[in-house]
Amino acid sequence: MRDSGRTPGPAGTTRPSERRMEIAFTAFRELHEHRWGAYAYVHTGDAEAAAHITEAAFDRLCAQWPYALRQPSADSYAWSLLKEHVAGWLARHRRGTALPTAALHCAAHAPEPERGRRFRILESRTALYAAIARLPERQCDALVLNLVIGYTVAQVADLLGVERAAARSLIGHAKRKVVAAVSAVSALEVPSEAGHSGGGK
């Protein structure tokens, strides 16, 4: 664990309360670090940037950990720090979220036996992620955390600082909107292709 923002005391002088906080922070980081990196990556599309963003967010959280533990939800407070770092990176680089292109990365980095199958479903996945990116922010976060990154509904609720029923509702509404959007895209593509093959305008 990196202790940025905190000056450790002399050896053997750490109080039990401080030690408990260090253990809690280490456990929190071990639980969330990989998934935070995945969230940063799908929005930046840059593995190196995602690693730096995640590290910076955890460094800041470490410095503010006692304060975070006094909040109604430490998970939600920590999540807000990560989102702030991701949003800051996107703003500095004048980019929108890279979520619509996440499917391309997944297909390109699949093992050789899987690559052909992955590219066959790439088009539908790209439409799926593009639809997710167009959702309202809270619904987008809820669906990305649950569907793309793999957090449970209970974990999504903790991170967003809402009740489980509210998280389940956000995910449900988001899924319905995405399904409707992807279905609409598919419906539009069929007559377009038919008209082109038939020599239409």
UniProtKB/TrEMBL annotation:
Alphabetized InterPro entries for the sequence: RNA_pol_sigma-70-like, RNA_pol_sigma70_r4_t2, RNA_pol_sigma_r3/r4-like, WH-like_DNA-bd_sf
RNA polymerase sigma factor 70 region 4 type domain segment(s): 126-177
Protein's name in the database: Sigma-70 family RNA polymerase sigma factor
Family: Belongs to the sigma-70 factor family. ECF subfamily.
Gene Ontology biological process: DNA-templated transcription initiation
Superkingdom in the source lineage: Bacteria
Gene Ontology MF terms: DNA binding; sigma factor activity
Keywords associated with the record: DNA-binding, Sigma factor, Transcription, Transcription regulation
